[in-house]
Amino acid sequence: MRPTRGWIVGIALFALVVQAALTPLLLTSESLPFPGVWVVVNVLVTGGFVAAGLLAWERRPGNRTGLLMVLVGLLLPLGFAQGVDNAWIFAVGNVFGVAFVAAAIHLLLAFPTGELRDRWDRLTVWGGYVLTTVGFLPFVLFTSTEEAGCAECPDNVLLIAEVPTITTVTIVIAGLLTAIAVLATGYELVRRWRAATGPQARGVRPVLGAGVILMAMLALSLALGVAGVSGRVYDVVVIGGLIAFGLTPYMFLAGLARSSLARGGAVSDLLGRLAEQPRRGELRDALARALGDDSLMLAYWLPTTASYVDVRGHPVRLPPPGGDRAVSHVERDGRRVATIVYDAALAEDDPGLVDAVGSAASIALENERLDAELCARVEELRGSRMRLMEVGMAERRGLERNLHDGAQQRLVSLALTLRAARTRLGGSEDGAGELLDRAELELELAISELRELARGIHPAVLSDRGLPAALESLAARSPVPVEVGVLPAERLPEPVELAAYYVISEALANVVKYAGATHATVDVARSNGDVVVEVGDDGVGGADPARGTGLRGLQDRVRALEGRLAVVSESGQGTRVKARIPCG
Questions:
Q1: What is the mean pLDDT of residues 561-580?
Q2: Which of 349, 378, 407 is the C-terminal boundary of a domain?
Q3: How many structural domains is the chain composed of?
Q4: Is 80 helix (H, G, I), strand (E, B) or coil?
Q5: Is residue 520 over pLDDT 90?
């Protein structure tokens, strides 16, 4: 709920009236050492918390930090009331004088979101409220001021009867519980101070540091009380702790002012960088510098697919709400352009900063969104092409298997039948045996051609045993001696393996047909994420990919995998075919 002007003015006037009434009572107190110091501390600390809390509540009504600061500021005078000479005001101070400590713990553990994080925080806070109000009632009701060690203080008007046992038990139990709460809170504040990084650290660490100092001072004052130390030493410790804690609202106000300055500075700095027309990917870096968040990520909206992509067109999924990542949608002319994914601590430190930076960069984000959309379409085409290649390879494997298991097996069976028929005819002179011999020869040629056809469609040895075995088979069948170098030990992705095989197969076929070579070499190696295939010979050279369809077909096959194929073939110096294929 956003506070109305009446609420703000009413709370401010109430705080001023309390200060106006309490100040002369403190200055004229006979039991209070350093009354002037206590008055200054009271005005500065109380006024700081109330003013900063009202400002924070008005600017960020959805965040309870402002309300908690106001609560601390309104409870602080009750603590100072323990130093006045009026018995009834002194009594109220005795009952509620340390309630501000529970409110301070609540503020520190809930900072900067205004919400307690877990059940341990809630247990500490609500236990603190109970302890600082109800917990000290037995001490107030059954302990006189003399027994409490303050002979100069007014009489305890709430005293029922002096019961030393109750006093002792209350002091021990309440002191022990207070010590546990203070130490637990101090430990948690130190842990959060050390864990704060990046943009969160700028706004959180100063406030948490002041809270750690307050907890240390409270622990020291408890230790002094247990040791029986009182008087001026005790008062100095308490005043020092209050002054340190009193810096909290001023640090908070400085953080708000810095956020406003940072917003203007970040936007102006970003506009200067955008004027330099950043290249692809540099816009993210410019926004990250402007916001001080190195983890920042940009997601570009594609309305045609209702999805997000990064600057290279790769799909992006936004983080779920409620985590340590927050999102800010950037629109231009009513259309969503992009989404900024950033450290959620930025939203706590300055909720408007990300929106301001996004608005300043909306034109640049729109331009980069168009580039990202184009990249996404290219990626989609590349994916479609790869899927078509995979379908084609599956169909070729199926066709090769059908030829091998179907037609080829039937032809082999027919050849066996012809041999059996010739055996039965024996030495017949009617010429049937010669006809069968001729038919058997033709059938063997047909089977051989069918095997070559099936191997050309898809080499079964490649699928079954991998590239090394397939290349050994190629080299063994080549009329020209082929030296196969060291090959990758691991299996390559199927499309890459098949492309490498066909590059080598076509290159060796050209060596046999045209090169007039006496020797050829084959090398396959991994290099920087690529597979490098190289086939060389010592033939006549002069090969030109533009004059034949074989090498052009290889170039298309390699390019389909984002690879490159080069042919170096100077006349009289042999030919080298080199392909470089990405292999993830």
A1: 87
A2: 378
A3: 3
A4: helix
A5: yes
